[in-house]
């Protein structure tokens, strides 16, 4: 164990003990129950922050610095994928030409979801492959970037894939530095940092994520949970394909079970509405009902699913043919519904699905809702409908077909990249880990990207990431994934947990205001006991932070983790509404390129401005109350200090609104990896080399002061940018909007 | 590039027989071959794996794509004579629970 890691572990243990000591004491002895309406939220918020801090400590416990990678084995086949939708052709070509010039032998492909002739011409002129969606995708759910990659996977054949966003210009050595990790046959993924070249040193929009692409990823790596972040990563094709097939098998099985149950209900309804004298029709329905039962029993016995569904479909088809004469008039009404059903369980039969269907503005294709989440609603709606007998039989046929072997509602039966979230990377990676694959984080900048350059785009991008993460948490909660280790579950959970901080932030803003204005104290007293428990904890927490960051700038990240509280709250409420209530995620459309200057967009940060105004007003009122003898000096001072700290945090918002990229020089390029051999071949020690090869240091980064507002949390896990800039990459992700 | 034999039996059943290693390198050809076979009217297809020494997930993916094509045309695709390494891939992905392999080509469409 290195000395640094030892120091980290000692501090982690101390922070945990002090933190638990403080919060337990708070709950048992110091909640001012008389003022429960502020006291209970505050102690809950503090508990939230303690858990955040404990998860951070666990992450740091096994911080893994991988050092110099082993050389790549010769003769592996690699496909380099550049995903694009509507970015300027010149931008894509800059990336593509750099990708073509990567030293290790490979094939380069532009995955052009926009299907643009000029993009194709430029690619072909440069001798670069061009792939667009196959005809299988017409009228099917597009699944945005995940769909784009899934499509390309089927028309290429390299053993490894390097995935790059359109703006992530790779360095020539990117494959030489990463392929060696795959000598481990169980290694599925190697992620490298995302670093942005168009960001000034003071990073006004908080674009760089030096803690996430550094200690946090390295900590996760120690528990075999390094995240896939959507770009600048190399993936083993076999791992992705295996994942896709296993998901296919599981989803088909679950879908057929569910469809058969619904079929039963549909048929029963139909029988009830059939006259008792209509022997032929009743007989036919009974026959199909019998077949449903047989199919269910066969599945329960463990018979192979595709055999069961094949037999079932054949028999139902035969019954349907015998019924054709019956009830023609009622059939007319059903035909429209069946057509929609066969087209992938459209929205008309399930109003809840309306929100999930929208017109693809660019190419006019209707994007259909996605299985499997669309299924329960659609099935319920079908079951509730009154069917004619023939309609019922045909409906049952279509029901089973929709989820059967062919997955008629999807362009491809196999979808290796997860489509359950607007950010496909985290869900895919979690599933890979669940199948026993390994991942690695290689801490060396090997591509230079572009970050959003204005506040509206930045806000949209952060909201998108947060929504994606919360979606995954609500749909596939890592804590309940049986095949992950407990620490892997906690590593995923830690990132998701950090996005809940918006709710805690409101309490941390409200508490000092309530005290200063109304004199209501949420703790029993600002006693010696209180400070003796809290202060050492805060100090140690900051010390851990400083040791972990090891000189990397962290202040910007701390500011944004609190200052963007409205974004975090919106991400949670919108993702909750989306997952459980079927609502649209409803995010704003981001511009394609840097938008025209719209002036200072104060309207986008109204909640923050209100918070700042209230904090200032509360401080003034508090001072007046102190002057007239209505408040104690200690209480007023502590809370005014708290207010000042909050204002310091929020000050970043004022900078961000006024930021104009033209006026500032970008930061220097990150140091290139230093030649490792020194003198007579003595390698630099690993820590030195990594320290030299990581991103630039910000000179102006102050060491963070005690965050009185977030007594325990770090809140920085969330600064996880899974992929490139919003306007360049995620614009077309609206295909995943539900 | 591996050999993939294709023949059509007297009863109209198409038989596809990959030799050697059915991997990502051959997956696309396998998929196209199955699609062509179905398009030419052989909606009942047997993939004979007796000569397949190894298959990866991409190879299996091509077979699943073929299965979809066959089912959509009203037919079916069956596996026959699966070797041990191929069976291992089916088990790893739980595909053995949904897709039952038949002992031989002759028995593939007997039920």
From TrEMBL, chain A:
Protein name: Glycosyltransferase
Location of this chain's protein in the cell: Endomembrane system
This enzyme's EC code(s): 2.4.-.-
Segments passing through the bilayer: 7-29, 35-58, 490-518, 530-549, 609-628, 634-654
Entry's Gene Ontology BP terms: cellulose biosynthetic process
Basic and acidic residues composition bias: residue spans: 728-738
Sequence segments annotated as region (Disordered): 691-738
GO cellular component, one term: plasma membrane
Membrane topology: Multi-pass membrane protein
Predominant location category: membrane
UniProt keywords, alphabetically: Glycosyltransferase, Membrane, Transferase, Transmembrane, Transmembrane helix
Organism in which the protein naturally occurs: Nocardioides bruguierae
Low complexity: bias regions: 699-715
GO function terms (MF aspect): cellulose synthase (UDP-forming) activity
UniProtKB/TrEMBL annotation, chain B:
Gene Ontology molecular function, alphabetical: anti-sigma factor antagonist activity
A Pfam family recorded for this sequence: STAS
Start and end residues of each STAS domain: 11-111
InterPro entries in UniProt: Anti-sigma_ant, STAS_dom, STAS_dom_sf
Similarity comment text for this entry: Belongs to the anti-sigma-factor antagonist family.
Entries under NCBIfam families matching the protein: ant_ant_sig
PANTHER family tied to this protein: ANTI-SIGMA FACTOR ANTAGONIST TM_1081-RELATED, ANTI-SIGMA FACTOR ANTAGONIST TM_1081-RELATED-RELATED
Protein name per Swiss-Prot or TrEMBL: Anti-sigma factor antagonist
Gene source species: Nocardioides bruguierae
Organism classification: Bacteria, Bacillati, Actinomycetota, Actinomycetes, Propionibacteriales
